[in-house]
Amino acid sequence: MAKQKKTNNKTQTKDCSSDTVTFIIMGGGGDLSIRKLIPAIYNLLEKKTITNCSVVLTARSPRKAAQVLTKAKKYIKKVKVSTWNKLVSCAIYHQMDFSNPGDYQKLDKVIQKQETKLKLCGNRIFYLATIPQNFNIITKNLARTKTIRNTKTHSSKVVYEKPFGDNYKSAKSINKSLKKHFTEKQVYRVDHYLEKELVSNIGLLRFTNRILEPLFSHKHIESIQIIINEKLDVQKRGRFYDNYGALKDVVQNHALQLLALTCMGAPKRLDGEHIRASKAKFLKSLMIKDFFLGQYEGYKNTKGVTKNSKTETFAAVKLISKERRWENVPFFIKTGKALKEKRTLIQIKFKPVKCLLDYCPSETNHLTINIDPVDNIHFHLNSKVPNSHQKVAPVKLNFSQKANFNINTPKAYQILLEDVIKGDQSVFVRSDEIEFAWKVIDKIEDLRKKPNKKYPHQNKLYTYKKGASSPEELGAWNKKHKIKWTA
Ligand code: BG6
Question: What atom in ligand 1 is closest to the CA of residue 230?
């Protein structure tokens, strides 16, 4: 560790090593903080990725840190008493109004007091786990009140949770404000899907295997499906969700990121910056062909949801790309809440080969990347049926993450915080990617409002029963687009 340096900051007792940090969670009493962030910080302490930390939970409502932590405890798999006590002893709750600059000065004092008490040296990670409407004001106030500062010896970073804005215009405005106040190196735009093990494998799988990459184009691929089915309904997030819906909550970010990783052109190198550039180029090329929206029965009775809500909890979308490489290849996205089962996957369906048999194979090859709840990859090939002359049947080549590596991979938010601590931005999203993805959603939002004689279903919201696979009417839509969903 480097020697002590003289600074004006009285908490600056030694140079900062990255294993000591203050997490400031803006929106600290909310769902994300409770279900994901606090358990992730616990795991970092348990794994000793960080040896010393302070957790400052901030939000508008009066609360006690103990209340929030007790709720979060339920989401930790195995609680070790000593680690839990350590977390409890370093966490505090600070009530504040995000729009009041005076409150940031008070926040700064609270952080400094904690830093002194816990002998921390000033590394700060501000996590904006709040609605995007707060992003601009928080950014401005953090910067102007100097609650965020960077010196040679310690750093402040700002993490922006998704959704980043609620349309192209608002995302652009947030990006503008970030650029004004912070350097790009300080900013982390989150999409936790990018931290999932098999998602971070997509680029490597494609670009390190000769038998895959040359086939990734319209010459060989018939269609691509991205499926993010959820069994859970909106639970206690009614107020938030009702302003977003499936398109803005999941399609704009997770689904389009999965599609971009699957279809982007070869990056110059397989590193963060080049991958982001390739994804942005692909996202820019996307065009909407059709879509279908639904809402589960009972959604309108959820606390926080308006009685006549038109918010979609289910979406199926068909897109194409302007890139020549993907000429006329349909990309299908399907996502929904309160469906039959949780399944997240990508399926790449290859074109049929010329049939040289009397009985042609009924199935074409496909590659399935299962992301959740299991993580594995299947390659579906055709193979001879034993004791037959010419009969073929589909068989699966399997790669199972667990069986091959026998490693329990940490949860996405834990890896994400580790990356922020290390300053590794490779799996965070760039401003232009986010903006291009919003353009896709804006187009759908536009179309659903305009009466459309050719595609009347675009103006409708179909209901479905909780636990169903989709609204029944999706069947006709599937038929029209010749899509058979894998899940
Ligand atoms: C979040 C959405 O980004 O992703 C939630 O806001 C959704 O609505 C969640 O449930 C799904 O994430 P995962 O990792 O559970 O598939």
Answer: 10
